[in-house]
Structures are given as structure tokens and as C-alpha cells.
Amino acid sequence: MALPNQLATTPARTFAVTVLAWIAAVGFALPLLWMLAGSFRTGTDIFANLYPLSWKLFFPSEMTFDNYATLVGGEFGLSVVNSIFVTAATVLVGLLICAMAAFALSILRFRGAAFVFALVVLSFLVPFDAIAVPLANLFRAWNLDNSYVGLILPGLANGFAIFVLRQFFMNIPFELAEAARVDGLGWWGIFWRIYLPLSKPALIGAGFTLFLFQWGAYLWPLMIGTDPSKVLGPIALANLAGQFEVDFGAIFAGAFLLTLVPLVLLLIFQRQFTESLASTGTKG
Fold first, then answer.
1. CA nearest 225: which of 148, 111, 284?
2. What are phi and psi for residue 246, nearest 5 degrees?
3. Angstrom distance (rounded) from CA 152 to CA 206
4. Where is the ABC transmembrane type-1 domain (predicted)?
5. Domain span at residue 21?
6. 273 with 157, same domain?
7. Is 270 in the same domain as 178?
8. I need a labelling partner for 44 at 20 to 30 A (CA). Which of 3, 234, 241, 283 fits?
9. Interval 62-110: pLDDT, tens
């Protein structure tokens, strides 16, 4: 008898959840809209309508592209190219490494597999900043500072990406691997021909994890990539704030450019990324 009453309240609950979701979305979008509007203003006009707060803050009356011209003509453009190259290499190579590690932990039966998986889980629970200083000392001793290899290496093996892929692989019926073994296919063939084609959502989710880790990294590039030719985007953005003068227009334009790339990728692969996260806890 309680079922009709529950069904009667469903539209109201749906409406309330929808309203709350829109409020949260607007709350997250307003700073991005202010950043976008500020990138087309001069540095002195960015804070003109902040006190008292006005809707004109989000819609520039006079637009200028000088901020973007300044960034393209300076060192910031090179830093964005460096970030794209380092991030792309990290995602492509790191995704292969993480997928192979996840395949071994989910399919292969070897002594100590549970202990290795526990170390993988522990690796993404420990903040990278806690090991950045001793790791940077090792890289300098190996002459890997101010090099693309030194910038890329720490991001290749990501514990969370391995965890996501392992959980997804464990949901694939093991009978497929057994049948392939009977037909004479080796483990590498099973991994390459069966598991990878079936794991597109998980691969996109893990790849996006690697992308965010590398694209937004600040401490590690600051310690390793000190040469002007190896500076990455976040470091170049911080360098826009000079000691005696701060060009807020250029900073807003640079921040928008660095935000635009992950935003576009998330909009394109949103469904696959959500599916990969939803599958992480389905099987242990």
C-alpha cells in the first residue's frame, strides 16, 4: 500500500535533485565564466565590477585579445607545447604499462599477487609531494633533470589507473581467456586481442587519470624542469606574476587555456569515464 505514495513523491524528489544539481553546476561555472571574461579584459578592468558585485563582471563591455597575443608571443606558448608533448607521452606509454600491470594482477596467478596489489593501492594513497624531494635528488644524480624523460617517468605508473583497470579486467569472464589458451593463444595475445578491445571505457578512464595527473602537475616540473626550454604550462602560468607587477589579464587568459584542454576532453569522454569509475568496486 505504500508503493503508490512513494511513486507519487518521485517527481517532487526528481525536481529537487535537479534544482540542486543546477545550483551546484552554476556554482562551479561562475568562476570559469569570470576567468573567461577576465581573459578578454585589461588587467585594470578585471576587478571593476567586483565590489559591489554586478552581472557585468561576467560579460566584458569591451573585448581585447591582447592577453592571448602576449601569451602566444612569449614563453607561455612553448610551455603549452611542452605540456602537450609530456602529457601525451605519459598517457600513451603509461596506459600500456598500467594495463599490463592490471592484467597481470587480475588474470595471472603468481605468488605474492595480493601483496603486490596492496602496494599498488598504497602507492596512490601516499601523496606524491611526500616523495617528490628524495625522488628529485635521485633524478638529478641520474642526470635526468631538465629533460623530457625526467618529466615523464614519474607519471607512467599510476596506482589508481592500475586499480581501475584491474577491477574492470576482473569483470571480464575468465572463460574467454581459458578458451583462448586452449586455442593456442599466449598471454600477450589474450591481453592484446581480447582484454584491451573489451576495456575501452576503463582505458579511457585510466588514461584520463594519467592525463590529469600530468597536465596539472606543479611541484615535480618546478623541481625538475627549471630550464626555460623544458618549462611546463602550470609553471609558466605562475611565472606570469612578476615580482613588481602582476598582469592579471594574461594570467586569466593562461588559466583559461590550461583549463580548456581537460574540459573539452572530459565533455567528449564523460560517459566512458563515468563507466570506468562505476566498475571499480564491483569485484575484488
1. 148
2. -120, 120
3. 16
4. 80-269
5. 2-58
6. yes
7. yes
8. 234
9. 788 888 888 887 788 899 999 999 999 999 999 999 999 999 998 888 8
Report pTM.
0.83
Q: Is 221 inside a domain boundary?
A: yes
Counted domains in the chain: 2
Any idea which residue has 605508473 for its cell? 157
Both 147 and 235 in one domain: the answer is: yes
Rounded Cα gap, residues 195 and 200, in angstroms: 9
